[in-house]
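Today's session is about reading a structure prediction critically. Students often jump straight to the picture, but the first step is always the sequence itself: look for stretches that repeat, for charged clusters, for runs of hydrophobic residues. Only then move on to the predicted structure, which in these notes is written as discrete structure tokens rather than atom positions. Here is the chain we will use throughout the hour.
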Amino acid sequence: MRSGLARARGLGAAGSGTETFWRQRVTSALGLPLVAGLLIVFWKLAGADYASARLLIANPVVAVLMVMVIVNFAVHMRLGAQVVIEDYVHRPVLKPLLLMINTGTAYSAAIVAALAVIRIAAFG
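Below is the predicted structure for this chain, in token form.
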């Protein structure tokens, strides 16, 4: 027989403990140097024409940086929205539906954006 505290230890409102909390903090911390690199890319793009911009994005280092930014912040966005849905949506049918829509939207946006960068990097 376990006490209520033993059953609840480490579990938040969503029943998943601190895993989501830490993932969100890690993606946030990883985002800082990624955004710094992205700002450098944007600084180099300032005043550039379309052809120069495509050429810069075609650089493998820049392309990898941009894909990393896209994936990192798609995961961060999904986790943030997931926390809001888990904490504030209380209807048993609506909550899983919104969580699926959240995951699908975040990953779909990441895939489309990453494929756009890969297309520019691969085909100029």
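Discussion point for the tutorial: Residues 14 and 86 are 6 Å apart (CA to CA).
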